[in-house]
Each structure stands twice: as structure tokens, then as C-alpha cells.
Amino acid sequence: MVFRFKIISDQVGDFVLHINTDANHTFLQLHKAIQLACRFDQSELATFFWADEEWDKILEIPMQTKGINPRLALRSMKQVKLGELLKEQELNLIYVFDIRNQKSLYIRIKGIDPEKQLRVPILVQKIGNAPLQHSFNEDDSDLLSDQDLANQIDYSDFGELEDLDLIYGEAEEVK
Length: 175
Known about the structure:
- The protein is built from four helices and seven strands; from the N terminus they run E-E-H-E-E-H-E-E-E-H-H.
- By secondary structure, the protein is α+β, with helices and mostly antiparallel strands.
- It has one domain: Structural Genomics Hypothetical 15.5 Kd Protein In mrcA-pckA Intergenic Region, Chain A (Roll), CATH 3.10.290.30.
- The longest helix has 12 residues, at 27-38.
């Protein structure tokens, strides 16, 4: 069985992800697919919440269950398969990708293909830029755009050692 997810942001209006996953995939695999598609820092903690029609959080599926109230958390992302919880179309999930600042993506099942199977989650479509994972200040407009960041990385490359030898001359060996 394959779930077709539509993922949106309340911070970036034109951002949409469409990801297909198998019912046998875990929430951790869905997490990694979202992280990769959004180019987020994968070392950061994240969590899923099963939500009702009004997007109120019902049940947490965290990366780690240590320190989580057992009545609110089922098991970890690694332990819970999507098919265990998601049996109906139009169910809601909230994916909190920045726990410190409570930044979230909103996930809805847009379709279920009971006859299909997938070996790995598939990014079907990405529209727009993902929201920023971290805010370094209160006004995100001050942060570098993707193009500015790419240019900054280009200019920070100091070249090969041979190029520096041409500029500064050969360095003497330190004894």
C-alpha cells in the first residue's frame, strides 16, 4: 500500500511537497525523505504529531522516546510503521522540524494506492522553497538567500595549494 502525501508550510505560502511512501516504511523514513527534500540539517531533532481535523495535536511520534510522557507518545519514529497509524485518507500529521522554535510542516494523505508498493520514499514534486529550518534573528529577511549563500561559498574557496604558492611564493619547511 502506498500513501500519497501533500506537505505544506504555514510560513511559506508557495511551498508544497508531494511524497509517496509505502505503508511498511517507518516515520523515520518519512522524516528523512522530508529532510532531504527540504535540505534541512539532519542532525536536528524533529517529531511528528497525529492531528485531528482542526490540526490539534493528538499523539506524538518522536525521534526518541526518552523524556516523553508515555501517554502522549506511542513509540519512536524508528519503531512505528506508517501503515500502523495511517489507515484513512485525509488524516493529518504535523511535522515539527525545528523543535526549539516550533516550526512545522503540515501533512495530509491525499491518496492511498492499495495495490502498489515502494522500496523507498519518493519525492514526486517540490514547489517553491522550504521554510528556513532555523531563525538566527527575529527577521528572517536578513538571512542570506540560497543564491547569496552559494556565492558566499564560491568566494570562500581559497583554491589549491599550488595557486597560493604562485601568489605568496613557496613556503619554507618549519623545523
